[in-house]
Amino acid sequence: MLEKLQRFLHWEKTPKPEYDLTSQIYSELKPFRLPIILVILVFLFGTLGYIWIDDADVFSAFYQTGITFTTVGYGEMYNMSDNGRLFSIFLIVAGFAVFSLAVGVLIEVIQKGSLLPLVKERRMLYKIARLKKHFVICYHTQFTIELTNELRKAHIPFVVISPEENLEEIAKEYNYPFFIRSEPHTDLAMKKSHLSSAKGLITLSKNIADNIAIISSVRLFEKELERIPYYIMSIADKNTDVDKLLKLGADEVINPNKLMAQRATAIAKDHKVKNLLEEFLYSDTNLNIEELKVPKKSWILFKKLKESHLRDLTGCSVVGIKNKSGKFSPMPKGDVIIQPDDIVYIMGTKDGLKMTRKLLRASTKPKETKYV
Q: Model confidence over 263-320: pLDDT tens digits?
């Protein structure tokens, strides 16, 4: 009955991290067991002692034990006998000994320095467990700093994994909201970053071997989960390394040196021409490019592009079409026939892209097309 009520009210259970640190935290708290047990035994012994010596009621005996054991100095709660006062002296000495032991244990735990980081990491893991469709970014580099700045602007959640000892300070400096200090290619790191609910992964190591290890590990991880493939991006300084990473399973490999050379060449050809992507996509114009696969039951199939009236209805423009064989046609004309499995690249605002998706997914011709 309770489960039905929760489903009706759309209540969701708090997501739990795939890797639980509770056992490790408990192991760090084990030294406190002896002081706690001693405190309980002293309270029990003191309460029973006052009841037996002075025939006090249970509450008065318990309260007298508390103020005596903690040496707060409130005085006697009832007319205490001499034997009761001697018993109080014993409780004061016992309390001092137990508290001294507890302080020593506390200092030892603090000096060890493992408890507080574990508590912080556990809190971080619970926050990461709430993420969905996020990106896992491997290694802290200059590329990571620039990439995370852009992801924050685009409101795309991300988790940074890197092995640096001072990753917490780095995260504060560069505003990484979620971070894991670990080697990115390990199963432990994948579980802590909640990769099972992520959209994809971006590996930014300058060492090609690190990127190879991560890509291979993620592809194996997704097979174990039996989920749809992750979208994996990487970087490489050489074209040969780009080919290697693509063959190993990366969906996109960026060569920063080549991109810089292409940009510099474009500026050298005509320094007055501004970069279109930087002007429209990376600024505050709220424009995006999205690739949409035309559904098999879409009404637009085998019709001319101009018959869709996308520009008039949504304000979006078709900037490219890729057919099922992989051939890409930039800036297609209105007479192009839309074929099954075509991928259409649309540029427009967020609302316009949403309307475009709805328009292309419709199985019948929308009524709105009659009025344009």
A: 778 777 766 655 555 655 555 556 778 888 888 888 888 888 888 888 888 888 888 9
Q: What is d(CA 46, CA 37) in angstroms, rounded to the nearest whole number? A: 14
The answer to whether residues 75 and 190 belong to one domain is: no
Split at pLDDT 50, 70, 90, the class of 228 is confident
- Please say whether the beta carbons of 91 and 47 come within 8 A: no
Taking a C-beta distance cutoff of 8 angstroms, is the pair 216, 235 a contact? no
Rg (the chain; Cα; Å): 33
Which amino acid appears at position 127 of this protein? K
Residue 65: the pLDDT is: 83
Burial of 345-361, coded b for 16+ CB within 10 Å and e otherwise, reads: bbbbeeebbebbeebbe
Tell me how far apart the alpha carbons of residues 359 and 348 are, in angstroms, rounded to a whole number. 14
- The residue with tokens 């508290």 is 99
First to last CA, the chain: 53
d(CA 73, CA 69): 10
The residue out of 239, 258, 277 marking a domain boundary is 258
Amino acid at the residue 124: M
Q: Taking each helix axis from N to C terminus, what angle separates 208-225 and 239-248, rounded to the nearest 10 degrees? A: 10
Which CATH number goes with the domain that contains 108? 1.10.287.70
69, with CB counted inside 10 A (0-12, 13-18, 19+), is buried
Q: Is residue 350 situated within a structural domain?
A: yes
Question: Tokens for 361?
Answer: 């997914």
- The residue among 140, 133, 187 whose CA lies nearest residue 155 is 133
Do 139 and 251 share a domain, yes or no?
Answer: yes
Q: pTM score, two decimals?
A: 0.68
User: Are the CB atoms for 342 and 323 separated by under 8 Å?
Assistant: yes
169 with 248, same domain? yes
- Return the residue matching tokens 């790191």: 189
Identify the pLDDT of residue 183: 92
Same domain, 352 and 311: yes
**What's the confidence (pLDDT) of residue 35?**
84
Residue 43 belongs to domain spanning: 23-112
